Amino acid sequence: MKELTPLSEIAVPRPGPEQVYRSRFFAQDFAFQGLKRLLGAADCSKAGDRHAGLAASSETEREVARTILSNLTLQHLYDNPLTDADDKVDSVMAVNYDIDHAAFAELAGLTLGEVKNQLLRAGAVEVQRMGQAMTGVMAAALAKLCDVHELIYLARKITRPTRARTLLGTPGTLSSRLQGNHPTDDLRGITFLFYWGLSLGTGDALIGLNPAIDTVDNISSVLHHLDKLRRRTGAPTQICVLAHIKTQLACLERGVPVEVIFQSLGGTDRTNNEFDITVDLLDHAYRVMVEKGPLRDIAEQFMYFETGQGSEYSYGKHNGIDMTTSEALCYGLARRYDPFMVNNVTGFIGPETHLDNFEMVLANLQDHFMGKLLGLPMGMAPCFTLHSNITLEGQQIATELLTAAGANYFMDVGLNTDRMLAYFDTSGHDNQTLREIHGKRLAPEYLEWGLNRGIFTLDAQGTVLRGPRWGDPRQFCESDAEYQELLAATPALCGLENAGPRPANAVARQVRLNQGVGRAAIHAELRIDDLQRIAPFRVITTEASSKEAHLGSPDLGARISAQSIEWLTPENRQVQIVVSDGLSAEAVHHNMNDLLPVLFDGFAGRSFTTGQPIAARYGRVKLAEPLAEKLRCDVVVYLIGERPGGDALASRSLSAYLVYRLGDPDIQKQAARFSGNAGICFEYTVISNIYSGGLPPAEAGGVIVERVSEILSRKAAGNRLMSLVKQG
Question: How confident is the model at residue 649 (pLDDT cuts 50, 70, 90)?
């Protein structure tokens, strides 16, 4: 396995003063203050960079920035590492400098324009060697100089096979990651989604899911269940549950089959601290998997990372670095661990980062190119949420282009609809359609299994065809009764009928109708009068003055308006209930009648002091933090409409964010030690999918009261609370 270079031994140049990059074109002077500003201006305009003030103000300015960038040498980029808010090089940037220095020495004096030309002329082996000489910043700079044809042409040259039980990423293959997310982690619904995906020939990369409940007990249960399904079906693949890496490590210590370990990555230390991870923690996880991973004697790689443009901006932790460059820095970090899989989910966040189809498609092509150039096995998940202007058609355009570019795998989310995370991704039908259009095969071990089961068949010329059992999940059930039980536990099933490799028309129409209802819920307004009939809400406003501003700029909804700040005063209560529309006012109005009385009675029964409830139109989750500080409360119970997804009913899904203010200096120090984030001020516990099709609101009220009681008694929330509960 790969030896990890100690951070202290990675040579990083000392940052110098910012340079001003100047040019004159057509009697107009242009100046870019610092390399960050130049890199941002050189990229195609995207919503996140516009909001951050990093995008070019005109096409002329963009092309001038690209011209200046083209004439900078690789050595110049090497000598000028991008710094954080304290003008220091953070550990993510430092890891990016762990490159092949011999290969870099051959390229250092070339300009970026010359490097691009050399990449276009080079063969596959040379392209891969050049990529190992580059930092993420260099890869990002090149991506900004490439047009669509070049992004596809260059990425297609690069192959990055990886091996666990299956061999992924060889030329001519297109694999898939089967994701069976369920809003309540119901094992019956999870089982059906996996059986359905396997019947469509998906899952050769991995079978796994994002859990609704991130506890050691729940993740252990789900992993054992996935292992049982894998063994029962005989599918040659590997399993993973996308819990926090600390939870997975705790499961591994119990002997749970953590075959591939997962973590989302950010391109700055400050972003990763929001995820409660550090490079040291990732290093530890890598070494544990080398020593104790269940596939350590089989797999050549066993780490899985998920990334996507915009998380750094969305958290306000981007250090003034544009989204494309921040994303490339994630890849430089991921490269450190020789991962089995990297999955890019650009489009997942929403219109604050990528507004429309063009921004999403181009960003995915950039990400795929940068990841491949830096030596990663890139899977792609071009995706969208209903509050953006991205559509299914835009997503499909992205998948066609990415398949041409040689993506290793796509996701399989049944009928494109994630039932827990409320977004829209690629499906098993998409994967099969793309394989048939582009002449791709599955991983060889998995294809053999599919042929033996009749899911696939071969014609006389050896072409892989859909077999008689393709698309039939009933084949994995022992009885009709079992099949019907699994079917009944699975939400957002619009039908299983197929037409060739596609869903039948009636199924497709039902999916799109549900999306229409979801988009309407996002644009609905919060009805304050209706809330005040339930309880005497006091009303505050945020800095978002309209629905459009709220959807397009999340930081506005995270700040209290100046007029509301004036009359809010410290109250020193234990609990403050806050209700906000978030991304679905309909979720608020369909749950409050049943939820609020349980909360009021529960808190009163435990003698918690509570403030008068607050209603906030156009609010985001982070609004809880300034409210907690202003009111000096211990816990904010923030009830907010989540983004619609799944079926029409899921547009009514509410989440409860239990936000614990670390007001006691001793408790703050404990939280800082646990998280590795010295500046941590708040801890979060989240209860999601509160609605009639998930966790019923009355039942959710009892869960919230119990969790708040634990937070107050143990003076902790989030992962630290779970750790204390585990310790007893």
Answer: confident
